[in-house]
Amino acid sequence: MTAENNQPLLSVRNLRIEFPTRRGTLVAVDDISFDIAPGEILGVVGESGAGKSLTGAAIIGLLEPPGRIAQGEILLEGRRIDDLPYEEIRRIRGRQIGAIFQDPLTSLNPLYSVSRQLTETIQTHLSMNERQARERALELLEEVGIPGASERIDHYPHQFSGGMRQRVVIALALCAEPRLIIADEPTTALDVSIQAQIISLLKRLCNDHGTAVMLVTHDMGVIAEAADRVAVMYSGRIAEIGPVQEVVRAAKHPYTHGLMGSIPHIGHHVDQLTQIEGSMPRLQEIPPGCPFNPRCEQVSERCYVERPNLQVAEKSEVACHLFDAPGLEVRAGD
Amino acid sequence: MIAFLVRRLLQAIAVMAVVAFCAFFMFQFVGDPVNQMVAEDATEEDRQYLRESLGLNDPIPVQFAKFALNAAQGNYGISYQHKRPVAALILERMPATLELAITAAVIAALLGVPAGVYTGLRRFGFTSKLIMTLSLIGISLPTFLIGILLIYLFAVILGWLPSFGRGEVTHLGAWETNFLSISGIKSLILPAITLALFQMTFIMRLIRSEMLEVLRTDFIKFARARGLHNRAINYGHALKNTLVPVITIIGLQLGSLIAFAIITETVFQWPGMGQLFLQAVQVVDIPIMSAYLIMIAFFFVVINLIVDMLYYVVDPRLRIDQPGGGGGHG
Ligand SMILES: Nc1ncnc2c1ncn2[C@@H]1O[C@H](COP(=O)(O)OP(=O)(O)OP(=O)(O)O)[C@@H](O)[C@H]1O
Ligand SMILES: [Mg+2]
């Protein structure tokens, strides 16, 4: 699925997220733009601290102070939502944009039964009475594959296993049929054996309901399995974004290359396991020019002075000076 | 649930037995009661007679057995000083102390809980900071000083409220209450506030820090992400999760309110058990002292039991995971 044929569901324009500190302002997300089409699954990858979670939090208006959106805008179906008053953004959360977080063990309130948490969420957004809400809750639990849902519905979170709890969390996120779900590492905290199940469940449900997903993950396997497009983030910027086959099979940005190199099981044979030397710079130490320049094997003088902007390269977009001159092919495809 | 209750009851009985033993030992080690009870010029025979009639010549285990048996039946002997049954003396004084302590607890909870929630939610607001600063005073000033300051302000300078005593009390059977007359209520205000102040600031600070803790949790973040109303998040989800520690503390505090009412009762000449106890200490009236000790321990134990049962009501995790707690959960 591509974003070209109609209006994007979500559009992030030049988003910049800052943390004012005593020793100057830290820029955690720096001028990123991307779109998500209706029903599309956009994978977001990148090292720890790249700004993935902050971007997700900014979209649903849950940035925690002192973090703030310093620049840019976020549009949902063409309507600006980053500057809405609290009550309006609250109504969007859960109803239009849902969210799933990393740890299902701690995402549910331990003191309330699953049915209480589901019906509360349903009744917040949809005009249903207690009985209708409970029926819907039951349907949702069945839909996310909880065996014996009609008994389990009155159980408390601690009576469910981690995988089952994440299913409940997904049911909660889907309560009011949002158009977009932000899933921030939804399987990282789970047992490896359960991760694949949860991802395919998420994928199936979103397909059935036409829900788009921003799927943040560290797992390139998950991306290859579930995503339609991928955004690769580095130091608060988008290094590369494009269709999943393109980015995984024919990575353009040297950083993406390195990332893909460390994933052996994506279907096509990788003959050299590239490891990227060094680590991502801390926010205070992001160098001028391209933030990847200290680690890049193909660095040139320009990379130290001029920041590369995202530009079209074949079917994806890349922020790398290697792709400035048209026709210059580097490493791609070997 | 039943197994849990039985276990807790056995623990409670054990605690009470230990306390009773301590109370009993006071008789052995603190002064010779006979000296307090007889005239200066009493003969040795008079003394012996008194000893015999008080059972002070029996072997110690027998004395303890008698003591424990009597205590369990509410019979604590005759006060040396008042020459009346201790149980009757304490029962007379108990309503005054209980009404004072409960009023103080209600004031402390009614003001402390909302103040704690407020300062927890508006951490950076001016009002919150003001409340927090004021609460430092409440926590650091000693009770008697607060009492004296309140008396000075409201009784001496303003003349609004009485400075001592229970005022006019109404008899409800054996129970004398402050609540049914204007004068009784007015008399209750200053001592209750004095007693409540420390507990109130304590509860407030506790709830505040618990709220801050809970508001950082993932399930609150997820509740926000689901678009729940703020009210539902703050009170339904966050506050409820602070309840387990808060119930514990408030429960224990209620016990100490009763125990530490002594100071407040002294400052306000409140005719409660604390005052009775203090007078008993001055004249080494051991039956009263030991009965008071047992009473206070009993209150603590009962409150603890109630607190434990409230956990069950609040926290579903205890209802199921505890061995023997499964059974009737629905
Ligand atoms: N309150 C804060 N104050 C200062 N810096 C912050 C704060 N919160 C986050 N950051 C910084 O913002 C950057 C991006 O954080 P973010 O949580 O978005 O990373 P991420 O890509 O989700 O990483 P991970 O994969 O570990 O979840 C990090 O460098 C982090 O240190
Ligand atoms: Mg993250």
Helices and strands in order:
The complex is a heterodimer of chains A (334) and B (330).
Chain A: E1 10-21, E2 24-36, E3 41-45, H1 52-59, E4 68-76, E5 79-80, H2 86-92, E6 97-100, H3 104-107, H4 114-125, H5 130-143, H6 149-152, H7 162-174, E7 180-184, H8 192-209, E8 212-216, H9 220-226, E9 229-234, E10 237-243, H10 244-249, H11 254-261, H12 302-305, E11 311-313, E12 316-318
Parallel strand pairs in A: 3-8, 3-9, 6-7, 7-8
Antiparallel strand pairs in A: 1-2, 1-4, 4-5, 9-10, 10-12, 11-12
Helix pairs in contact in A: 4-5, 5-7, 7-8
Chain B: H1 2-29, H2 33-37, H3 44-54, H4 60-72, H5 86-121, H6 126-140, H7 143-157, E1 170-172, E2 175-177, H8 182-215, H9 218-225, H10 230-267, H11 273-282, H12 286-314, H13 316-321
Antiparallel strand pairs in B: 1-2
Quick summary of this structure?
The complex is a heterodimer of chains A (334) and B (330). Chain A is an alpha/beta fold.
Describe the protein.
Chain A has helices spanning 52-59, 86-92, 104-107, 114-125, 130-143, 149-152, 162-174, 192-209, 220-226, 244-249, 254-261, 302-305, and strands at 10-21, 24-36, 41-45, 68-76, 79-80, 97-100, 180-184, 212-216, 229-234, 237-243, 311-313, 316-318. Chain A is of the alpha/beta class and 334 residues long. An 8-stranded mixed sheet of chain A has the order 6-7-8-3-9-10-12-11, with helices on both faces. Chain A has a 4-stranded antiparallel sheet with strand order 2-1-4-5, with helices on one face. In chain A, helix 5 (130-143) packs across helix 7 and helix 7 (162-174) packs parallel to helix 8 (192-209). In chain B, strands 1-2 form a two-stranded antiparallel ribbon. Chain B has helices spanning 2-29, 33-37, 44-54, 60-72, 86-121, 126-140, 143-157, 182-215, 218-225, 230-267, 273-282, 286-314, 316-321; strands at residues 170-172, 175-177. Chain B has 2 domains: 2-72, no CATH class; 86-317, MetI-like (MetI-like fold), CATH 1.10.3720. Helix content of chain B is 75%, strand content 2%. The two termini of chain B are 13 Å apart. In chain B, helix 5 (86-121) runs antiparallel to helix 6 (126-140), helix 5 crosses helix 8 (182-215) and helix 5 (86-121) runs antiparallel to helix 10. At the A-B interface, helix 2, helix 4 and helix 7 of A face helix 9, helix 10 and helix 13 of B. Adenosine-5'-triphosphate (ATP) binds at residues 19, 26, 28, 46, 48-54, 67, 283 of chain A.
